[in-house]
Amino acid sequence: MAAEVAIPPQHEIERAHKSRFDRAIGPLLLSPSVILLAIFVYGFIGTTIWISISNWDSAITDWSIADPWWKVYDALFHMTRFQINIRNTIVFTVFMLLFAVGLGLIFAILLDQHIPGNALFRNVFLFPYALSFVVTGVAWRWIFNPETGINVLIDTLGINWVLDKLGMGPFAPKWITDPRVIGDLGSIIPLPDIIKAQIGIPAAMIPVIIAAVWQLSGFAMAMYLSGLAAISDDVREAASLDGASMWQLYRDIIIPLLKPITISCLIILGHVSLKIFDLVYAMSGRGPGYATEVPGIFMFDKTFKVLEYNTGAAASVVMLFMVSLVIVPYLARSMKDV
Amino acid sequence: MATALGSPRKSENKKLGVGKTIGLIFLGIMLVFYLIPVYVMVVNGLKTADVVSFSRMWQLPSKLSLGGYGQAWDKLSPNVWSSVTLVVPATIISGFLGALNGYILSKWKFRGSDLLFTLMLFGMFIPYQSILIPLIKFLQSIGLYGNMAGLILVHVVYGLPFTTLIFRNYFANVPTELVEAATVDGAGLLQIFFQVMLPLSIPAFVVVGIFQFTNIWNEFLFGLTVITNPARQPITVALNNLSGSFSVEWNVVMAGAVLTALPTLLIYIVLGKYFVRGIMAGSVKG
Q: In Å, how far are A14, B126, B159 from A329, measured between CA atoms?
């Protein structure tokens, strides 16, 4: 699902011994993979961009360019539904990153101490990362079903009995079926007229974020644990000789030293979250009033259900653009380090 | 597996202080939270259809039954087989090609090879929605749409960036003197690859094998769109269909989720060390 991109320093090879034949055969042997990727990645992206500015909006293929060429994008960004999709993606990404990376860091720091049951904790926190998003979605869908799942547990535990005695209503959230949007940015600051979607936190998104944090926080934990293992004991000993408390040691020395890991976690998990599809599709789908719909689902719907290929293509180009904002600087930086 | 993520610090003292006790309580609460979906899936899969009711979702089954698993297996076994026939060849082919690419890109660099590698890597991060329409049209035009060979091709191609990355980083740490010595002895590029590099690269093959197996087994979008016959779709697609079907009792859905999760979970349990190594693959930079 994700891998860290890093290119270790290369040793120069003494060219003298290598024959010209061998040096020519290298690129030749590489060429099948290069040609396949050139077609399947760059060629297909180019074709998708073409489709997104074309008139192809039915079962009949139509490669002619729309007039004006940005017609589909214009319609897309004026569509309240797509605005909701983008809002959902941003809300999902921000909160998922905050909690997955935050929890990963807390887990790693705690498990870096002598805690009984260390191995058990590590393995339990990391195992969800090995599962399919579909399994995660299916399991959490039942847990956050308002008639079954967690609400039954809340009842069974007597929480609602206590609330009732205190004269408060029962705590029975509607979870993934809740159509409410919490907060409205438009009532605080003036937003551009084009924005018709309510900019707030869709309540139904919260369970999806919880499921994603469950699945992805172990990745951040594993990354931080490897970072902590690389910090030498000398650093800690020097700090404790200086009379620094544990809290100061972590706040002032160790967490700043872990900054490269934090950046890697944010980029890897952030790009997964910007293109999220499977988890939401399996767990809540569109949600009430598109409350949990993301561009990946919109694209699938437009392309394969209503055959509006140009709209589906345009939505996928927007996804690619969002992911590229995060990934391209990351790749460029990796390459510079070679 | 205890050592998979590195062992805890030795310099800390063993006595539990107040801070550590609070930490331990927090970890304990989180442990329960992380195991909730496992409990729900496993326990409800073990219930018989007549005791599966939503109001008793959290209770242990009054009598154990493997009926849920039996029914899930009946419904999903063709798709388990589909996934196996997909994952095994796709993993092997993309792994082998990745080894060759990684070897050339680390030991036989040429002008522009680093740029080429970076351009290849980009393919690992793209949202696959952005290539999906042309991909399907292309597969239709070469007669590979709707069949397993087409899906294998798709997973091989989009797996190449990852497998190339792992092998390139792995071979970069193999001493170049080995290649030099072999060239002095008159060995050519391919001879060195087969006789020197491949025997050294078992650990990289294990990491790549685990990750490709896990990624392809867990994948959903390509399985959903490239294969049209529900009986031949991969397990993740079948599980999602099962979960959305009104005619299926949900103890069967839970059992199906366990079946879907089991192969990758077993890999994680048995080869956890390599799983973590794959996550870290090359994460040594600052």
A: 32, 14, 22
